[in-house]
Amino acid sequence: MATPHTSELDLDIERGVALVTLNRPHAMNALSIQMRADLIELATKLDRDADVGAVVFIGAGGKAFCAGADLNERGQKSAQELYDERRYFRSRWINFISSMVKPTIAAINGYCLGGGLELALQCDIRIASEQATFGLPEVTLGFLPGAGATQRLPRAIGLQKAKELILTGRRFGAREAEELGLVARTVPHETLLAGATELARTIAANPRLSVIQAKLALNASQETFVSGGLQFENEAWLSCLLSDAWKGKLERFAGRKDA
Ligand code: HXC
Q: What region, left, alpha or beta, does residue 175 occupy, with left being phi > 0 and alpha being psi -120 to 50 degrees?
């Protein structure tokens, strides 16, 4: 049973995993301005919450993960209002998940379009239901993806494929998403939430510092030269050495061998 966090978001924290549910099923969980503001605030809160080791994002209602920006809301605004809103939101929105230190998983349970796919692209790992449908239709609406997809999609699936998908705006299914490497795996619809939660639990059960440092070192691989990334990796490794987590783990291992 999902627990309301705000009027448009549910939040459940259990055994180290925070489950965030985008809860606007009547609008295919499209991103309203209010939901975006709530998500930005919640991400910061979860990153600082010592009880949270990993975060799963999912959509309510079973038909959509998120159908992108709320087009009804946008359609009622003037160009000036949209311009002002974007000036406020852009810098906060484009990295609000990707800058989290806690690992994040998008459990994509249906339509994952436009800004919804851009939100999923900010997550560390994406898992899709077999029923998921993807697409970046922005060019068909007279725009372009403006919340990170032109940079993150080519890094995820390669430049040529990213161009094909963004310039056509065509929809594609979960199997193709998996073949492209856009999602880590595709699972039967009914098992998606359990699978994503189990994956998050496995990650959250590992020493927190190791997980965070490994994630940050992996992120560095996408943004620096190999030499700089290797240097980052070394600093991350050394900071783990200064924690006590590894001692307990290795002592337990050594004890088992002696027994
Ligand atoms: C607001 C939306 C919505 C959206 C769906 N709904 N998508 N409301 N913003 N993005 C609402 C519908 O208006 C409808 O409400 C209800 O959800 C169910 O939608 P249906 O169309 O009746 O369902 P279905 O036939 O199953 O089709 C689902 C769908 C389709 C394929 C997801 O709704 C669709 O194509 N939606 C638009 C997707 C999209 O183009 N997103 C924007 C991406 S661009 P009512 O009240 O009528 O029942 C982006 C960047 C911004 O995100 C671009 C700037 C312009």
A: alpha
Whether the predicted pLDDT of 168 surpasses 70: yes
For this structure, is 118 an active site residue? yes
Decide: 71 in ligand 1 pocket, CB within 6 A: yes
| Overall pTM surpassing 0.90 (yes/no) | yes
| Structure-block tokens of residue 242 | 């200064």
Question: Which atom belonging to ligand 1 lies closest to the Cα atom of 116?
Answer: 52
143 lines ligand 1 (CB under 6 A): yes
Domain of 177 in residue numbering reads as 9-204
CATH number at residue 112: 3.90.226.10
Per-residue pLDDT tens digits for 20-53: 999 999 999 999 999 999 999 999 999 999 999 9
Is the minimum distance from the CB of 118 to ligand 1 under 6 angstroms? no
